[in-house]
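ok so for the tutorial part 2 we go from a plain amino acid sequence to predicted structure tokens. step 1 is just haveing the sequence, like this:
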Amino acid sequence: MPLDVSIALINTIEDQDLSFQSLQEDELIWMPPPPEILPPFQYKRCQCSGPSSGYEIGLKYGPLICRIRVTAWGIKYRESTPSTNALELIQVKEKPPYQLELFLL
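step 2 — the prediction. this is what the tokens look like for a chain of 105 residues:
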């Protein structure tokens, strides 16, 4: 049984469109995929599915990189690139299928 994650993406960096760069492994299925451009103050959604053994989601928007580790026991994340901006991940749903909100600050 695959593990599903729904991610809401919100760019709160004023006057700056953020471009997406994929850091993904081949084992993941996106429906819909992350948006190529994340405009300021717009709410976008993407959904990912991967193996039940667990997987990692790598998202890069502009200078911000977030790696999300997904397992049947929960979600962990880390910010990979220090910059003048930050990000915040909020887990809305505690059990699979997971629901997350990622704020780019």
